[in-house]
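FAQ: What does a multi-protein file look like?

Like this. Sequence, then tokens, then the next protein.
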Amino acid sequence: MTQLTCFKAYDIRGRLGIDLDDAIAGRIGRGFARALGAKRVVLGRDCRASSKALAQAVAQALQDEGAHVLDLGLSGTEEMYFATTHFEADGGICVTASHNPMDYNGMKMVRAGSAPLDAEGGLARIRALAEGNDFGPAQNGQITDISTEARAAYVARVLSFVDMAALKPLKILVNAGNGAAGPTFDAIAAALAANGAPLHFIRMHHRPDGSFPNGIPNPLLPENQPQTAAAVRAAGADFGVAWDGDFDRCFFFDHAGDFIAGEYLVGLLSEVFLAKEPGATIIHDPRVIWNTLDVVGRAGGQAVQSRTGHAFIKQAMRDHGAVYGGEMSAHHYFRDFCYCDSGMIPWLVVAELVSRKGALRDLVARRRADFPSSGEINFILPDVPAAIERVRARFQRQACSMDETDGLSLDMGKWRFNLRASNTEPVLRLNAETRGDEALLQTSVAQLRALLQG
């Protein structure tokens, strides 16, 4: 039995030719169909150079298990989520490595109803079957191209989140990063235009290109933000939007080109949905929380914390019937979008919000001042557990409270921080925040940095 190293906490990620290749992808495809008893499976892929061949291997494997493959072709992960529910499939797979380096690829997978696979049950069962590789003779499944029908239905659902009559003339810069977002965005923009929406778009790095000539699309990295920021300013845009490779995350820049940290978007979107459904539940992750708790509390909602990661947030959304969930890493989840994350719905909601209430910069200014945060700081360390223990030993006795929902979170009264190991990369991530004290934030981060680096 061959141990497969591409299985992570809630999806598949691996280095091409080392952790993942076409043969391994085929074994995972057969394992997926057998573990779920799947007879109908939606399949999509991003634009990476390796994704088409990997998707073909998965499609053949699913057919070998007797499944009917509903093929989306080039698409975003969220299009797979939507189509899995819309077409009443038994599961869905998107071949994507999102924002990982060039030599990586992977898969995101859901079961019927676009529900996440739990690590202990579904994912472990698929892994055991794929590692055993004892599937028997191939059967004769089918494959059907559903790309046109699926995208039309997806666009209609996404547009249902916005009141087009409320939209005012706005200029919006959009940066697809040469990922999969371009064609899907164009379909949404065409539908907006057909309905008379007065939005003008400036497209940047729009054509899908698996060689990523402008770098891997990961707008969360500070070094990737200046190019979009400069383009927003040069265009005189009202705001800018940038996506990662499979566009299930979107990132915002105000009209001055300043990047808006994800937790402030979580607060904004929480306000929008609580205005529509007073008293509703909002799910959030444990990394940066004070702004979200304040916003949700003031709006009369219920805030529920979940472990970081799409599988965990989605399950919490379902468990609590939450209307919206957000992670500071720019994943935004919507009950009325199969409880799944979308990178297209948020910018549409923000466009309506800006149309109604004014500049995005002004909408987040008070929140930034009241709850300044460090942004996510990544450390590559030889011994991650030892580094966390150094921090615990230094701060735990002084802490007002400790939470270990996901990593180590300590509330120090006037400031707090979260330390967690990445679920998908060999990295330790730090986030810190204060109550209106930027100087304290800088001092606290410096202390933590020194401890972590030994």
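And here is the next protein:
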Amino acid sequence: MNKFEQLLKLDRPIIIDGGLATQLESMGFKIDGALWSATLLESNPRAIIDAHRAYLDAGAEIIISASYQASRRGFVARGHSPEEADKLIASAVDLALTAREEYMADNPRAREPLVAASVGPYGATMHDGSEYTGKYQASVQELGEFHAQRLALLDRCGADLLAVETIPNFNEARLLCDLLEEVKSSAWISFACRNEKSLSDGSRLWAAAGLFADHSRVLAVGVNCTPPEFITPLIAELRSAAPDKAIVVYPNSGETYHSKDNSWSGTACNLDKEFNVTDWYEAGAKLIGGCCRTGPTDIAAILARVGSG
């Protein structure tokens, strides 16, 4: 039984971190380029360690690496060779592991947190907002090559699990279902949804999650980067589609992102009124955290409300 399986056996909720980019921005870093937070993998890796540490200190039991938007294509466009690009992507996991080591040195009696290697969708690397719509201008072959290369890289980096996240497109989910059968690591897969039933591309969450109902490597299915008001009904969809899998939820703040100018609109939700983490846990969510526009304070508040130990 690996570390992720052991954690899922605990009879309590598991707390995961919040938005890594959100924390980095709060620390004063400008990360609105094509690589987003992954830019700091080359320019200021210490900042990423410190951002992870903020979430660990807030009570997160799983931290997610800065590889979400990192890609070979993105780093090559910045002048790196493919080999250098791969080393930078892999370094995202190393930095999360370093943050864990430093946390454990200061908290030797704490349960060791897990490190999840973030595997973002194809759209995240395009910097065109397609990760929020699922509307891709890519062939199945292109999608397959993109994910196969990056999954193989992150699978051997020493993370405790793969966090395949913010998947907005049914065809991408189906492709990932096959590719994840080939990895050695355990994984979760979480989808980006536009309402209480549908992925961002309009396909049913029930159908996408159902692909993984009997998957050998994917131990949890869920939703992330989705408005919090949709989470409870989405949990019901997930439980129906994959009843034997754990459920992971980490919604955004409820605001809307605009890729054209890297801005946000709308009002952030009131954590006490709209981040209904107790209801989510009672509805069946096992792993609970936050995504875009949520920070360490929010994770500490989630922990205070649903508890851990």
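Q: Is there any per-entry metadata?
A: Some entries carry free-text notes. For the entry above: DSSP finds 13 helices and ten strands in the chain.
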